[in-house]
Amino acid sequence: MAILYIVFLHSNLSHARDVITGFGSASVQIGREYPISFKGFQNSSSIPKRASFPSNFIFGVGSSAMQIEGAAHEGGRGLGVWDDNVERHRATFVDGDKFSTLIEHYKRYKEDVQHLKHLGVDSYRMSISWSRVMPNGTLRGGINKEGINFYNNLINELLKNGIEPFVTIMHFDYPLALQQKFGGFLNRSIVHHYKDYCELLFKTYGDRVKHWTTFNEPTATPILHMHGIDNDAAERCQDTGKCSEAYTILHNYLICHAAAVKLYRQKFQATQGGEIGLVLQAQNFVPYSSKEEDVDAAQRLMDFTYGWVLNPIYHGDYPQIMRKLVGNRLPEFTKKEKHMLKGSLDFIGVNYYMSIFARHESNRSKMYYIDNFDALAATTEFNAEGNTLGPMEQYSKFHVYPEGLYNILIYINEKYQNPKIYITENGIASPNMTNPLKDENRIAYIATHINATKAAIDNGVNVRGYFAWPAFDTFEFHQGYSGHWGLYHVDFNDNLKRVPKASAEWYKNLLTSNC
Ligand SMILES: *[C@@H]1O[C@H](CO)[C@@H](O)[C@H](O)[C@H]1NC(C)=O
Ligand SMILES: *[C@@H]1O[C@H](CO)[C@@H](O)[C@H](O)[C@H]1NC(C)=O
Ligand SMILES: *[C@@H]1O[C@H](CO)[C@@H](O)[C@H](O)[C@H]1NC(C)=O
Ligand SMILES: *[C@@H]1O[C@H](CO)[C@@H](O)[C@H](O)[C@H]1NC(C)=O
Ligand SMILES: *[C@@H]1O[C@H](CO)[C@@H](O)[C@H](O)[C@H]1NC(C)=O
Ligand SMILES: *[C@@H]1O[C@H](CO)[C@@H](O)[C@H](O)[C@H]1NC(C)=O
């Protein structure tokens, strides 16, 4: 999902643009600019063919349970935090009335697998709804057999059609009961419930699922919490205790992640032969000017984005700059936790959409809506010379910057020891398009980002797969269906009919033609 849209509605309009791009992406100058031009895209003739990728490279497409399944109150499912949120703030969600049914993937999964097959993908990135398999989040609350069966059927249907499931264990949504009972991820006692949930999944599906990710974009939830989505009141980092809570939420995510990986490795990996990682929101922060303070600000944002999650996993603790700037509001790991965290991933998932400039800002009350926490940096759409990162695409109003993806892959590769990487999300909206089926903007976007991925591979980055986001028009939080994000259009005026867009046929062609 494009988390950028979530925050959009919660910001006031004058900030909206910065908010959107604020979730863009990031790269400190690394001395290796690459001429990967979105403007330069004419047609696919200059884009690398499938055969030029390593033979085991995976091409796929993604989704998440809470954005497509529907059947919120059916099949024994419990409520998730987003059911509650949308219900209580329905007027602020475009298409809020569709949230409990969505595109009815729960009922139409067999048909949907046929559409995926038509695309020619190797793999389908899906997520499991915790509330569907454990309705109140705990083992004591019971396991929902119907929910368990649904994912068994979906996974079997995928495999039968030659498509590998690539499963996210938690993609934003989790059982409301856990939040109401003890504050959800604010409370460390969530760890053992999360671990129970993971064990159930490994035990039930691990014979067939060979790619697991513990969390999608762990940094997004703390941000949402601060801005009143996981929570009623929106407040700014520097004004409140919410910011400290945000650090606590991420801290508990990390401990959950490490506990799940430990469990998988001890009890399942050897026999099941799969791999487990986590998915980052990849933002490329480019210095606003060549002044040292802006270069430093961009690096701080990198540390507050990638380092926040990856340093504990690589080195057992948060980046030093975070310890220095956040002080005692940043929780400590115990010795045991540090040990458990170190090395706790087999691969990194990268969700990339766009890029943003970073400028030094010492006045905390001037930092933008998303605040960038305590990084003493502000993000801006224009740099000191008045340029943007990439041209603005007319429908999405995104600044499209495939170089940002290239740069971020190089950055992660150099900083985090040449890890195995999958591009787990990459895509673009096309709101206000007269004919959403003719999504040439999406073709150009995906093509140039696949091109950037190839350039990174050619320069030694260990990228193993690329997943376009998303397969079907999905409910993108406050923007509902207005962004028409899918490779497949879903027609709400015609019984939710799925219709391949131009991009779907283009992608299929890339994946299935031999020359
Ligand atoms: C594709 O990437 C190459 C670098 O590998 C770059 O020179 C070229 O301009 C890119 N083409 C497009 C259309 O993005
Ligand atoms: C595709 O674009 C190239 C320039 O990149 C151009 O030479 C070629 O004629 C184009 N092909 C088609 C079919 O439009
Ligand atoms: C879930 O249900 C069980 C059994 O009814 C109960 O003991 C437990 O407190 C519930 N948990 C939550 C988080 O509501
Ligand atoms: C955390 O959850 C436990 C129950 O598991 C509860 O006793 C405790 O009060 C909760 N702590 C907070 C800060 O809510
Ligand atoms: C910081 O910014 C706020 C809001 O613009 C302003 O009121 C305040 O005076 C600034 N503080 C300093 C020290 O510049
Ligand atoms: C789409 O159209 C609506 C209504 O005209 C407008 O408010 C919105 O800004 C447009 N969105 C984009 C991304 O152009």
UniProtKB/TrEMBL annotation:
Question: Which N-terminal residues, if any, form the signal peptide?
Answer: none
Q: Name one GO molecular function term.
A: beta-glucosidase activity
Q: Which domain of life is it from?
A: Eukaryota
Q: Which GO terms describe its biological process?
A: carbohydrate metabolic process
Residues spanning the membrane: none
The record places the active site at 425
Tell me which UniProt keywords the record has, alphabetically: Glycosidase, Hydrolase
The entry assigns this protein to a family as follows: Belongs to the glycosyl hydrolase 1 family.
| PANTHER family linked | BETA-GLUCOSIDASE 9-RELATED, GLYCOSYL HYDROLASE
UniProt protein name: Glycoside hydrolase family 1 protein
Query: Native species of this protein?
Result: Medicago truncatula
